[in-house]
Task: structure prediction
Amino acid sequence: MPKINVYTDISEVEREAKKDYIDRHSPFIHCEPSAKAGETFEVTVQVGADYQHPDDMDHYISSVALYNKDTKVAEATFFAGSQGGQDKKGNTRVSFGVVLEKDATLVAHAYCTKHGVWESLPEAVAVA
Amino acid sequence: MPKINVYTDISEVEREAKKDYIDRHSPFIHCEPSAKAGETFEVTVQVGADYQHPDDMDHYISSVALYNKDTKVAEATFFAGSQGGQDKKGNTRVSFGVVLEKDATLVAHAYCTKHGVWESLPEAVAVA
Amino acid sequence: MPKINVYTDISEVEREAKKDYIDRHSPFIHCEPSAKAGETFEVTVQVGADYQHPDDMDHYISSVALYNKDTKVAEATFFAGSQGGQDKKGNTRVSFGVVLEKDATLVAHAYCTKHGVWESLPEAVAVA
Amino acid sequence: MPKINVYTDISEVEREAKKDYIDRHSPFIHCEPSAKAGETFEVTVQVGADYQHPDDMDHYISSVALYNKDTKVAEATFFAGSQGGQDKKGNTRVSFGVVLEKDATLVAHAYCTKHGVWESLPEAVAVA
Result:
């Protein structure tokens, strides 16, 4: 507590409303599967893949944090309105340029002001 | 993943080093057990009770977040040096003035730049 | 740009609405005038002294940062609702425990989601 | 106070050390000059253009904030080590996906843990 909602494959979820609920809250990591040590490596995190989240004043995605295993690497904070504002929907997205020195396991957390913390699937990056 | 280290009563831990490790990383919530709805209520979070945490440049407590159940209420960020700096130790402490409208269950997270996320015991507040 | 609104003594402001506007947005630092080097020193920052600021979803105080001269020491982030929520008003308040090693000049910034950055008067702390 | 260091064209600066100092601390905004209302628009902020900033534990770029005039749109926080760590240098970079509804004037702030706040040149975006 607080609950960490871990992403589960929505293709195995039956109800459409639940697929939408899980997908629109979950951060998805997009990056290459391998990186060169010491060079800037771009990691994009987008909240929602097939569905969009409201950007209402009282219900929006306010932060996206990037972890490498247990260590926080970077975190982006968004204000209500960044995705169009009241009655609009969007997919909050941020790209961080980071330097990895050895094999990494990236995980992202997104925070919804109404539905709490959501965790991505882990993403392994081979570093050479 | 990332691991959420949940506080466990150190009086039941045998090894001194482990007591120290758990205590100095754990956020402890200090507040009255009841609050008046609509009035400012002070919630203090201190990291560590009987032990202190290093404030080294590469190893310090960088944030303390306060949740009411799954909802983040406030978060404080500290920079290395706020507790005396390299080779010093301290107990990072912050007090938030918050207004509660109904019964609350407060939980705090502390983040150590080397040892990740630590969670306090929950603290129930009756609001009338 | 962005504009940094620096506090000006409202006793010299004539219009009541303007007094209110300046006061309710300005962070005020409350602390002792002197501190002991190496010991925890409590610095409280309250936004507004004689007037209160709305805590509406689209108009609230979302952060309070504490600087020592040009260096950020700590920052607290608040979510809409922390001061009672829609149609309520309050004085956002946070206390940081910090360790000072030499004479300090503290300054606070508050950020209002509608009216931007506001700066306190500087507060000198003699450290011995 | 704290000082906001506003970028000045380094081609008009004579001393190499000063060019380096200004450039490596300054955030540079990279985006298209126009955006479509209601659509996600990517804004990249990179700290430093021709020079790189250290990523030392006690001296690194810890945040990059994006403003539209006086309003904060998003902010990214980085931890020491994100650009390679002690004795390495880099250009902290973050891209935010934001939705603009009308003509915007973007400005970025970068914060260096040793040399404070640095402000970019403003970047006008025509929104249609």
Q: What stands out?
A: Chain C touches chain D through 19 residues (CB under 8 Å). The longest strand of chain C covers residues 104-112. Residues 16-25 of chain C form the longest helix (10 residues).
